[in-house]
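cron nightly-structures :: item 1 of 1
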Amino acid sequence: MLRRAVAFGLLTLPFGLLASVPGCGGQDLPQDICNWLEDSNNCYQRFANDVGERCGNSFDANSDPVASATGYFATRDDLSICIKNGGGQVIFDPPLVVAEFPPTELAFTLLDEVAEECGKGTWANDPQSYSIAINEVSAADITGTGGTGATTDGITGGTFTIDNPVDTNQLNVSCPGGLETHSFNELVTQKCLNDVTDFLPSATVEYSVGIPESDVSDAVSGFIRFRVEYPPTDPLAAGATTRVVEYFNCLIPAPPAPCEDGEKNNDETDIDCGGSCDTTCAEGQGCVDNDDCTSGSCGLNGGLRQCLAG
């Protein structure tokens, strides 16, 4: 099978995430975002430490998005449910629509293999405008399920939200439980540019609509993937890097070939027939010459060239 490179669009999420985790409330953390990011006890850190990779997978920046997909849509025309390869589903509400890509917003629910909700997520067309909610689960609930991020104490879960209002330099953080909130000026991050700026809460969406089959190449599936970057355990340690969780990477069936796409395009004389298509056109459909017609007869009908009865 021939392979070809997949071109994909990259969208970066806004600074907006909400998380509810016990222990986040009641703390009066500094409104200086550099100090907040450096604090290993900030709620962004605690949320990442607590939920681990529950509901998602670790992310390999060098992975091929099609080959590393963790789920798939059954049809290209219905992108409401992504079926996860390892069991479970990702439910999109509203459904995604390939014709409207690039997507400008996402809202999804993560289900496990027994249809129990694991978490939810939203994204609003900006690296700092998103939310991730991970449901609480006890150690007993996850024993033997093979879930990642599980500990003997279970998972507290919660919802972490960040918002970057349009046309402002403001970053609003709402921590798990809603008892701890912050409003930061994102311009202040310039003063910690070489320190922890790269550890700002952020989400990324990548997508491809896929490539149809042609005379020189096989069809290539499309995809859509969503991931969130969490801070390193010790953001001030030398060589510290973010912890990245990919919540879904869903294959989208490749576009149909030109002669099968339900449209009159290229050199077709009518929809999906005539011209270079293998399918010839029926009586009453458009034609240029006799070879375009199943009947072998192309002539004028009401002043238009159409396939005539044999």
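cron nightly-structures :: done
Helices lie at 33-38, 43-51, 139-142.
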